């Protein structure tokens, strides 16, 4: 008995998912837990542990439900959908790095299944299977799908679910599915505001490729269209409520990189080298392109597919035109968006870029010779991607993660949890949220402090930051080149000049022996005063840096 196209897609997806989980995914504890990765997950964990008091950066918003903090917003441009989706997984399997990363990768793979089912409905079985394989083998999908600090997986799930439900609803004239699909796309906007650009690119592609059929459907089914628009707004409502904050926010749209830099981010995301570069540099984004990294030719193939769509007879194929316009416009939008300087922005091109390549290969294979060429190119692409993934896994296994990705913080978390009175003061970005997730202090509000958001505000008002501590206080800092705020390294310099019987500096190293971060302890009660430089006061004495 032959399988239906949908069942064939599901079976192929199961094989791809097994491959990703079994061979391609990084070990659950390597690299180390990244700050934003923990930041998104911890807000889901907060809901499960209402008795545990935690403190997050001031951008977060939650609402109380039955005495539990339900995450609503991570930042003005970032909703808490990823944090909310983490709640069931953390509840079922515990709040650990393995359960977090397994759940994140499962979300990415579920998005891939829905994308393949949508592709089969619109572009045929062969294109759907090939596109699914290209995505599953893509190193950027594998590594950012597991070790994710932006809502890439959640947005992929929303757009794949939305497109699938909209398509099935239109094809079967089931208005409820159309409305559900629109709501899913609205949730994508809630997940992150730049999802609006995805919707704009898809709308533009639909108008260019399908305008006649599109207008006819809109005229024939106005009630369904109106209900879908309402559902879209309802899904995006939490983000729309914070629209004023979003427009006022500088963090989400600030120009944090030149157009040339964003182009390099896009290219390295498509060729699969981006995560490898992150592992080499320890998360120093400004130095990503100072290193060499293994890459696949996929970025070049996407350009060739776009050229094929524009300059051959395929420009008459509405499906090819839709994918070409969607891919090109999405790439252009991400390049023009000033704040889109991280790979999770560029991953918005999934699965459209991969599907474009697959459709061009499948529809271009009209003769035996062209089929041989298409199969050879597809196999070569998959092999090249597998090579990049294998080399990146080797890089991770060798270092365990460097710098801001070092798993040295895991060992420190275990040590500090064994000290009943220890108080950790994080004086740079990268410590606080991972420590919240890696520890189980019931009184985390008092045990884990992160003044780095308060210090600049005080200094802007010409007020010093002061802190009274004793021997139980541990100050965490980064040294160059990982020091982000420039606060902790100054304290490190001051502490290293003090007598060793009073100030003790601990070096926390990664697997290769490099210093990932420093801890500083003072043997006696003291007061720290920061005004742009440090005063360390104890027993009437003052030490200045």
How would you describe this structure in keywords?
23 helices, four-stranded antiparallel β-sheet, alpha+beta, 11% strand, 12 strands, five-stranded mixed β-sheet, single chain, 545 residues, 2 domains
- The side-by-side strand order for the widest beta sheet comes to 5-4-7-9-8
Global morphology: globular
Instruction: Report the span from N to C terminus.
Output: 79 Å
Number of domains: 2
Sheet having the most strands: 5 strands, mixed
Query: How many DSSP-defined strands?
Result: 12
Mean pLDDT: 92
Strand content: 5-15%
Radius of gyration: 25 Å
Low-confidence region ranges? none
Helix proportion range: 55-70%
Secondary-structure-based class equals alpha+beta
**What is the count of DSSP helices, taking H or I runs of 4+ residues?**
23
Sequence-ordered SSE layout with sheet pairings:
Elements: H1 5-24, H2 35-48, E1 61-65, E2 68-75, E3 78-79, H3 81-93, H4 97-123, H5 125-137, H6 139-146, H7 152-172, H8 175-191, H9 195-220, H10 222-241, H11 243-248, H12 259-270, H13 274-281, H14 298-311, H15 318-336, H16 343-346, H17 352-364, H18 368-399, H19 408-417, E4 423-426, H20 432-438, H21 444-447, E5 448-449, H22 454-460, E6 465-469, E7 473-477, H23 488-496, E8 503-509, E9 515-522, E10 526-530, E11 534-538, E12 541-544
Parallel strand pairs: 4-5, 4-7
Antiparallel strand pairs: 1-2, 2-3, 6-10, 7-9, 8-9, 10-11, 11-12
Helix pairs in contact: 1-4, 1-5, 2-3, 2-20, 3-4, 4-5, 4-6, 4-7, 5-17, 5-18, 7-8, 8-10, 9-15, 12-15, 13-18, 14-15, 14-17, 15-17, 17-18
